[in-house]
Design brief:
mainly alpha
């Protein structure tokens, strides 16, 4: 994989985070990896997520990139869990999700 500029690395990291959301939600649809198509898509998203994270790490600090990657995955998965699976929408939960978003944005702002 070619080297990335820092700006491109942030875009790759965002896509890696979106792939993380895809595999986390996909796990629900695999029914314990007993369904072939959802299992294949989930495994592909897992691989893409880690490969893209590794690529972004060529230009970003590991601590920042990993925290942002997991934060994107956590926030996206929590929000989709609410939308797709009728999970809790309590105010305290939404505030905590907002804090994760604030942390992600803070890390982006202080990292070059």
């Amino acid at each position: 994989m070619p080297a990335l500029t820092p700006a491109a690395a942030w875009i790759v990291l965002l896509i890696a985070g979106l792939c993380e959301i895809a595999w986390a939600i996909g796990l629900k649809y695999t029914e314990g990896f007993t369904r072939l198509i959802p299992s294949a898509w989930t495994l592909a998203a897992m691989a893409a997520s880690v490969i893209l994270l590794a690529w972004a790490l060529k230009a970003l600090p590991v601590g920042t990139a990993y925290a942002v990657w997991t934060g994107i995955g956590a926030v996206g998965t929590a929000l989709l869990g609410m939308a797709l699976f009728n999970e809790s929408r309590e105010i305290a939960r939404l505030v905590c999700i907002g804090l994760i978003v604030a942390g992600i944005l803070g890390l982006k702002l202080v990292t070059k």
